[in-house]
Amino acid sequence: MSDLIKKTKLYIPLIKSLQTGLLLATGIAGYLSAHTAVNIPVLIGMSISLFLAISGSTIMNMWYDHDIDAKMKRTHKRPAASGKLSRSEVFWVGMVISIAGVGWALAIAPLYGLVVFAGWFFDVVVYTLWLKRVTCWAIVWGGISGAMPILSGRVLAVHEIDLIGILLALAILFWIPTHTLTFSIKFREDYSNAGVPTFPSTYGDSFTRATIAVSSVLAAFAIGWASVLIGLSAGYLRLIAVLTAGLLLLAFATFRVQSERVNFSLFRYASVYMLSSMIILALRAF
Amino acid sequence: MKMSALDRILLLITGLLAAYQIVVGIDNLSAAPIIAYTIAFGVLLVALLLFIILGFDALDSPIVVIVSTIIPLSLSLGLVWEHLASFRTLYLLFTIIGFAAVVFTRSTPMQNRVRVPTIVIAVVHGIAGMTIFLLPIIISMQGQAKPAFSLVGIGGALIGLGGLLLSFLKTGRPLLSRDAIMRVLPGLLLLMTICFVAGFKFG
Description:
The structure holds two protein chains of two kinds.
Chain A: H1 2-11, H2 17-32, H3 40-64, H4 66-71, H5 79-82, H6 87-108, H7 110-131, H8 138-158, H9 163-186, H10 188-194, H11 199-203, H12 205-230, H13 234-256, H14 260-283
Chain B: H1 5-25, H2 31-54, H3 64-83, H4 88-107, H5 115-141, H6 150-170, H7 178-202
């Protein structure tokens, strides 16, 4: 029993619970953003299958990047990087969970399953295996992968890829650089030691901060447009507008003031903004 | 001074109340008050989020004075627009000029006139604060609104107090020590927002 608890404690960091939780929340928000009545069994099935697929892709990322993670202060204690779990064990755990998640998603609805698989494929194959060590633009594919959960949720509810789904996916796609590029500035030494190309090392800090600010504005634009098309009430639109104004002001401040503190404020606010937006979109269903 | 978990919880509850007010608390009003109240509670909400994210260090930003001026100005403008139709234009002018004066005196070096920014803040906050404090109470006493609307006035007194504490802290003439202000601020903001939300809902 104690061995099982020990193993579980080692497996939990493999799935990056905060990141997985936020991506799962976007999937649920995508589903609830539709005008359809909420089907609880479908919602539960979607949540579990999506959780498994996202977790599986994250574990596969940990499996492949164990050598990079071992060279970075921020990640060297991860179970695969530190050797607490063997590479083959991490690989098989990742594959089993991935197959279970994607398989379950395909069983629920083929189109939904296809979008979930696309997210897994872009993250594991295109981003992790192919591009991450080659070009700093790999983050675009990481972003596309991160945008798939919300699109999959929307697709499951409306049975097609519609404009709202695309806008919601774009919002996540443009939000992700705020996260990854801020980290690449903050932990530049780590990435440099590991030999991972990043925006700051390739284009410099100013261009990176400008990219963060512009992508935040585009994310806000996509969320705002989607909110109008979804038909949020005037009150919720006011709330989205207020939160967006805060994001735009911080993005402007990032342009004006070249400081890590302002940059990190934008990164944190953008996370709160995205979570709040997801909650507002989800509330639309009730 | 480090922000405690309790402080963050109080600020989060305050933020949720402000969000509630923006979403449902100001429906059924005309456009101008809705815009004014949305600005007031919106600035409060964003400021609270930045407080939660950055901690009390957010108070070191030079825009704190401006932010703590927008809230009472826009709130009082909404109240005047709604309940004192004959003063609308005059008060709108005061709001615009008052805000511009605060921004100007806070962003321009005032050699040999160091008291000017303090006087401007005191006048602008004083008028806006007294408007938020007195107007709802008078309207309630005259029977034009339910007695509960006077809670907005109590909220006005609290926001006036908070605004003055922050503004004078930033001008270098604090009414209380920085630590004392930090200790009372989350509770003060929550109490103030509860008064506003309850006053608008039940008044």
